[in-house]
Structures are given as structure tokens and as C-alpha cells.
Amino acid sequence: MGLPTLEFSDSFLDSPEFRERLQCHEIELERTNRFIKDLIKDGNMLISALRSLSLAVQRFSQSLQEFQFECIGDAETDDEVNIAQSLKEFSQLLSTMEEERKRLIQNADDVLISPLERFRKEQIGAVKEGKKQFDKETERYYSVLEKHLSLSSKKKETQLHEADSQMSKDRQVFYDASLQYVFKIQEVQERKKFEFVEPLLAFLQGLFTFYHEGYELASEFEPYKQQLQFNLQN
């Protein structure tokens, strides 16, 4: 079941039903806010894990590169030459893969973390500020309204006119705060459809690019792998 609609005209009525619908949106935005916080936390953990994995693979690759593979005797067969060279080939393959992974890691903050944090702080934060102002004006308006209703009809006509005029101004301030609050809620719900989803899509695209690079390298490596297997069988 979706969220109830919020109409600007309902701001002027300020009915109990309007307040209930408003509360539904507030609860949903708070839930979204908590979810984004958790997502950012988990995203940072994922990036940190990828960084640790990348460093481990780079160290492993460097070890392969530095190892000198020696065979018995002065004259090496073609098979032995290819087998001895294989460690450096493995190292080169892993290094190439890690270059793509490093790009994924380097872009992760700009692509994923920062946009999510910006959406949470700027968009949801703006709604929270709007609620503060709305609650403040609500309390003030109803306090003024209560005083206005308790005015004695025995007061001078000029005083009553002044009170009515001031009441109209206070009512307009309350309506403005209510309209602005409803607008911010509607705006963030619309923005959530793309500003919240686009960073996730961009991050996954980077991940898919990394996997695709691995597939391409594996395809290019296939002839060498078959030749090496032949050398090993010999």
C-alpha cells in the first residue's frame, strides 16, 4: 500500500485526516533516513573490504613477479621456459585486474557514498527543518487563535478590527509554513525516485565493468592457458 496523497488545499483545512497523512509521510522519511545511514555504513565496509582485498592481491601478484623459477641443468627446454615464465604471466594478469578494481574503489565514494549522504542531509534534512518551522508556527497560531476566540465582544470596535487584522496575518504565516512543509515532503518523495536510486545503479555499473574486464581478460588468457597446460603435460 502506497503513501496517502498530500494536497496543498488540505493545508488550509488542517484537519485531523491531514495531520494523519502528514504523519505517514514523516514516518516513511524517517525510515528512509535510517536506511540510508545503514546503507552508507555498509557501503563503507564494502569499500574497505574491497580495498583490503585489492592490496592482498597486489602483494600476491608482486610475490609471483619477484620469484625466480629455476630448473635443473643449464639448458632449459621450451616447456621449462614457458613454465618458468608462467608466474610472471599470472602476475601480469592479476595486476591488470587490480587496475580496474582500483578504479572501482577510487570512484566508489564519489559515485555512491557522497550522493547518498548529500541526499540524506540536504533533502531529508530540509524536510526536518520544514517540520520544525511548521510545528513552531502551528503552536504559535493555535495559541493566538485561542486568545482571539476568548476576546470579549465588549471591547472597542477598533480593537476588535486590529485583533482580526493581526489574526489574518498570523493565519497567513501558518498557511505559508504548512504549504512549504507539504511542498518539501512532496519534493523529497519525487527526488527519492532518482537521487536515491541513481547512485546505486552507478556503483553497480562500475562493479559490472570490473566483472566484464575479468571476463575479457579470461578470454584473452585462454590460448596461453591451453598452451601452458600442454607444456605441463609434457
Explain what you see.
GO terms for molecular function: GTPase activator activity. One of its GO terms (cellular component) is cytoplasm. With 234 residues, the chain is an all-alpha fold. Helix content is 88%, strand content 0%. Helix 2 packs antiparallel against helix 3 (78-149) and helix 3 (78-149) packs antiparallel against helix 5. It is rod-shaped, with a radius of gyration of 33 Å. The protein starts with 7 loop residues before the first helix and ends with a helix. The relative contact order is 0.12.
Quick recap:
This protein is mainly alpha-helical and 234 residues long. GO terms for molecular function: GTPase activator activity.
Largest sheet: none
Beta-strand residue fraction: under 5%
Q: In terms of structural class, how would the helical and strand content be classed?
A: mainly alpha
SSE string, helix = H, strand = E?
A: HHHHH
Fraction of residues in helix: over 70%
Rounded mean pLDDT is: 87
Catalogue the unreliable spans.
Answer: none
Based on Cα principal axes, name the global outline: rod-shaped
Helices, by number, come to: 5
Number of distinct beta strands:
0
Cα-based radius of gyration, to the nearest Å: 33 Å
Q: In whole angstroms, how far apart are the ends?
A: 67 Å
Keywords: GTPase activation
Domain BAR: 6-234
Protein name: Rho GTPase-activating protein 42-like protein
InterPro entries: AH/BAR_dom_sf, BAR_dom, GRAF_fam
